[in-house]
Amino acid sequence: MKNYSIVLLFLILTSCSVRKHNEQTTSLIPPEKLKQDVDYAYRKLQKMHPQLYWYISKEELAHKFDSVKSTLNKPLTPLQFYFTLQPVIASIREGHLSLRIPRKKFGKKDFKSFRNKKGMFSRFEYYVKDDHLYIVENKDSIEGILPGTEILAINKVPVSDYLKKYRNLISSDGFNTTFQPYFLKDTFFNFYTAENGLADSANIETLYNNVKKVYTLKRETKSKTDIENDKKLKKRTPEKKVNDYIAFNNSYNRNFRFLDKDSSIAYVKIRSFSRSYSDQFYKEAFAHIKNAKVSYLIIDIRNNYGGSLYEINNLYSYLAPEPFVLIKPSEVTSKMTPLKTNYFRKSNVLQYAYKSLTYPTYFFAQTFSTYKKDGKVFYKMKENKPTKPNKNAYNGKVFILVNGGSFSASSIISAKLKNDKRAVIVGEETGGANDGTVAGFYSYQKLPNSKIDLPIGLLLVQPNINFTNTRRGVIPDITVTESIQDIIDKRDPQMDWVMKEIEREKGNNAQ
């Protein structure tokens, strides 16, 4: 009975929390309160962000914050305020820095209802070009919509209006132009549903081969077979663990295979540096590479938004010919910065109790995690120190495939490999900056009146290279772009270039 009472109390508190949150998201906030939130956000950024004026001057940023305050002359909901303030945050041009879009929370009943239904927009794959949104894959052949179909409007609202609005909310690191289309195609419907809610149907006006059509998309209920298949997909086999299986889209974060009969060409695809079981994956993959005496290694980190510094440091140890340091000393704004990471964030009652017991250990570890040098404060990290090559390190030729969706940790390792002349970079300019980024760990600030979350990166992370100072992404050694027709026809011009180059080199070596 005691345990039952605790569970019942927890459910009641959760229900109240959801109701209170949803009431907050629809409330109108007076202009003077919104202005207070603007000042709060700017003040916290100035205090915590270690490289706030990397891509924008102090004067210009101050002007933008003042300007947005001058427009706040009527009450707004948190969502309306988000669309007002986020473009200013995006103008800082730090891709990791963004307000969290306020959205409705679902109670247990709502969650169960949507859990047993198929997605509506998520069953397509998309491509963004300028102010146009195209479908490039129809996973379930819904309504017979063909790849290459442009979505002109959703419920009679032009998609171009949405794209123009949402584009102002997204920034890469610095001044590259490749990141936005990739990130926008992946987040478009996150913004859309935040504005319009999770409906059970939507009318889309489309254009294909100069013919316009209107389709009604519906959120179909999953069959018993679908639900059983979902359960099977979620089961974690040893293979799924090592390759970091993602049940949501039935894919793997990591794949390894040979591309030819004699196993002279190895291919590693990494969709995310999630760290999950990564040690085992690289151990097994590079053991295979060593045993097969591979001549060429292709590492594909296209559409990889980044992740763990530990993982890329480990990966580099399998490619390094000699001891290396992955990143330069990581700067923070003060010795107290590591203690601003919201240790108790998102803790339930039991987690809070446990963390309370371990907090003294955390406090002392973080307190002694910094050091001062030349008037700056730095955070101690393993990746700042020399790492020895792995015993199974690969010494052959390496090609790295990148595109505008290669961000954060993907850009860090690409910049390092290029600087050290350890790989040939093929594709298009990365979405993340060549000379580093601000991320590492975050202080999760909440704007006091709108209650919008503002995660602020606390750590300046820069690859241990000679900086280009271009304020751009990693520029490939060989630039090869991909068109929408390539995607529809499932052609891969970047991989094709690498394979042709390998064949050319093999031919020269045979002479």
Automatic annotation (TrEMBL):
One of its GO terms (cellular component) is outer membrane-bounded periplasmic space. This is Peptidase S41-like protein. It holds the Pfam family Peptidase_S41. One of its GO terms (molecular function) is serine-type peptidase activity. GO terms for biological process: proteolysis; signal transduction. Residues 1-20 form the signal peptide. Keywords: Signal. Residues 226-481 form the Tail specific protease domain. InterPro entries: ClpP/crotonase-like_dom_sf (IPR029045), Tail-specific_protease (IPR005151).
